[in-house]
Specification:
The two termini are 30 Å apart. Helix content is 85%, strand content 0%. It contains 12 helices and no strands. The chain has a domain of 167 residues. By secondary structure, the protein is an all-alpha fold. The longest helix is centred in the last third of the chain and has 43 residues.
């Protein structure tokens, strides 16, 4: 097959994939979520197999444990989160006013004059933002529980996702073997190498960074709650979830929690210091233990490219697009590096058909 026909084939395949997501985006969520869950849990199933369990027993055990943990979290954590979200949106205007009062009292005279001029506008802007946020949250919850299609989506996510995950996890190795048999024999080694790089990048992010985010969210949420911070569980889990973007989750969580701590505890600066120290400890654990062990250098996704992919796919295909954004971004990144390496080895770049000498000369 000529290079032109190969390029045409992959362009058409990309267009077909995008159209498929666009047409079926309303019903794809439980299937994509089940596939992602199976991919996340596959190493555990492989380990159980190495310990002597067959694939069916390993798959069943893993999903039963996962479903039990999920149900426990829904019963214990979700009601608390919903309550904290509602209370945080309600108290945000008063928190902002008290924080501005604190900054006003602690600031020098020249800054006080600037704050005095802008204070009314700042309070109005924050109050308006909080009111819009509360209204958006109320609309979202109302549509979630009363909207027909939204309710069906939630039910299908809870019911269909475990079923899809079970079959995908059970047949995962078999599917990989079948796909490998379909590869063109002349290019099988090259395609396997590219697929291995894509899998390494995806595993580094989905399994590695996902586990880091979960661990940080639990640590921040539990530590802030034990410290007595208002909305500690909400702030901690949100900070951990946003940690997939380097520094964003920690900085945002630190700023929000420190602001809430100042309003809640001041002048007890020891408690404020404890809240700040929690994020310092979390970053130390992440940088020295979690990320090196679970992620390492496998991701290969630049944070800017990752954020662009999430926003672009989310805008085009909704929540399903955000789920497939990371695998697609990883694949595009690996393919781009592969194409660049081939270009740097080509006669078009070197200006000759002869490969460069060891000293770099042609």
């Amino acid at each position: 097959m000529s290079l032109q026909r190969q390029i045409t084939f992959w362009i058409l395949a990309t267009i077909a994939f995008a159209l498929f997501l666009l047409i079926f985006r309303e019903i794809l969520l439980p299937f994509v979520a089940g596939l992602a869950l199976a991919y996340f849990l596959d190493p555990i199933a492989d380990k159980l197999q190495r310990w002597g369990a067959n694939r069916l027993v390993a798959t069943t055990t893993i999903l039963i444990v996962f479903v039990l943990i999920f149900v426990l979290c829904v019963l214990l954590v979700v009601p608390v989160l919903v309550e904290q979200i509602s209370a945080f949106a309600e108290r945000l205007p008063s928190y902002s006013r008290r924080l501005i009062d604190f900054l006003d009292a602690a600031s020098p005279e020249w800054l006080k004059s600037v704050l005095a001029e802008r204070r009314q506008g700042m309070e109005g802007s924050v109050s308006e933002l909080a009111a819009k946020g509360a209204g958006w949250l109320g609309t979202l919850l109302k549509s979630l529980w009363s909207g027909g299609l939204a309710l069906v989506s939630v039910v299908s996510l809870v019911v269909v996702t475990p079923v899809v995950a079970f079959y995908m996890l059970y047949d995962w190795d078999r599917m990989i073997e079948h796909v490998d048999e379909w590869l063109p024999r002349d290019h099988a080694d090259t395609i396997r190498g590219i697929a291995t790089d894509i899998n390494s990048a995806m595993a580094g992010f989905i399994r590695g960074q996902g586990t880091v985010c979960l661990a940080l969210g639990l640590f921040y949420g539990i530590a802030l709650s034990l410290a007595g911070l208002n909305f500690g569980l909400l702030i901690g889990l949100a900070s951990g979830f946003l940690s997939f973007i380097p520094f964003v989750g920690a900085i945002l969580g630190l700023v929000v929690s420190a602001g809430v701590a100042v309003v809640q505890f001041w002048p007890d600066w020891i408690m404020v210091s404890i809240i700040v120290a929690i994020f310092g400890v979390g970053q130390f654990i992440e940088g020295n233990f979690l990320s090196p062990k679970l992620v390492g250098n496998r991701v290969g996704l630049h944070p800017v490219w990752l954020m662009f992919a999430l926003f672009a796919f989310g805008y085009l295909f909704g929540f399903v697009g955000m789920l497939v954004a990371v695998p697609v971004a990883a694949a595009i990144g690996v393919l781009t590096r592969f194409a660049l390496a081939r270009y740097l080895e080509s006669a078009f770049y070197l200006g000759t058909g002869n490969p460069p000498d060891s000293d770099g000369s042609v």
